[in-house]
Amino acid sequence: ESAKYEKGEEIWNKIVESSEVIQYPEEEVKQTKQELVNNFKSLCEQYGMTFETALESILKTDEESFMKEMEESAKSTVKQEMILYYIARENDLELSDEEYDQYLNSVLESNDMTEEEFKKQYSMDLRTYAEQSGIDTSLLYERVFYFLVDNGTAV
Fold first, then answer.
1. For 74, which of 33, 68, 87, 120 could close a Cys bridge (C-beta 3.0–4.6 Å)?
2. Burial level of 20, CB count in 10 A (0-12/13-18/19+)?
3. What is the Cα–Cα distance from 86 to 63, expressed in whole angstroms?
């Protein structure tokens, strides 16, 4: 299983490295960058630290450099998602609504919850929660990953 994972990682990394983005979808990059910044700020709060203090003492950087780094990270994330969706679409690997619903229902079952209980606990339905949490993308990545392992070879 470890060898299979390593093979998949190698193939995926080669694909990402050899792919060139001609134009990034600016709104997605902007949104992803904001999520990264918000996650970092939230982490700072959890540790009782201000954003500025964390930048200076932990990352040893200033806000401008941090924001540039977040922009590059966001572009990297968006690039990988673009590649993911392209491979899925070209190889008919996209999840059907039925498959996605089955997965979500299995999540409810494994947590011994009903949809109503989930809604009450999380203040949103499971599908919305899953999409906001990136579960849909993770499922697709897993499907593409194993497709690459089974059908691809490292370049």
1. 33
2. exposed
3. 34
Is the pTM higher than 0.85? The answer reads no
Q: Encoding tokens for residue 121?
A: 């606990």
Contact 79, 16 (CB under 8 A): yes
CA distances from 108 to 18, 27, 98 (A): 39, 33, 15
Nearest by Cα to 130 from 107, 98, 96: 107
pLDDT in tens, 70-104: 999 999 999 999 999 999 999 999 989 999 999 99
pLDDT digits (tens, 9 = 90+) for 12-21: 999 999 999 9
Question: Taking CA 12 as the corner, what is the angle to CA 11 and CA 17, rounded to the nearest 5 degrees?
Answer: 100
End-to-end alpha carbon distance in the chain: 21
